[in-house]
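User: Need the bound-state model for FE2/S2 (inorganic) cluster:
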Amino acid sequence: MTIASSVYPEWNVEAARDLISVIASEPGPVLRCLQAIQERFGYVPADAVSLVAEACNVSRADVHGVLTYYADLRTTMPPAIPVRLCAAEACQAVGGRELRDRWKARCEASPELAASTGVDEPVFCLGNCALGPAATVGGELVGLADVDSIEQRVRRAMGASS
Ligand code: FES
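Assistant: Bound-state model below.
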């Protein structure tokens, strides 16, 4: 079993321009350009807004609107091993909120853990409602999650990436 860690190339304007040049000529290109940039670099840096606006012939405000509307688009580099806890109703009903509080406390007690996993970004339903509370660790789905099972997976991923 492999847990993905976030390893992306450094932001590069020319590489991004090449990446979006084909997409920009297709219908409805703004979202697809932003997604392509995030897929390549792990996030959408501020420089990308004007790049996409120019390539798609729209205003920077239009691009900014798309960028801020979609919760899955991020404007900062993701942590090495992102942990996302489900905040939707089915998971809340089986302890999702308590899991979030306990995970936050665990990260506060361990700077190493906090640095590797970053700030928790809630996700709304991972499609694993029957096995809630659900989470993802480095993109891998975890059912019946508790802080120990999450930490164990994070530490395994940390070991695999060091
Ligand atoms: S509500 Fe949490 S996985 Fe669906």
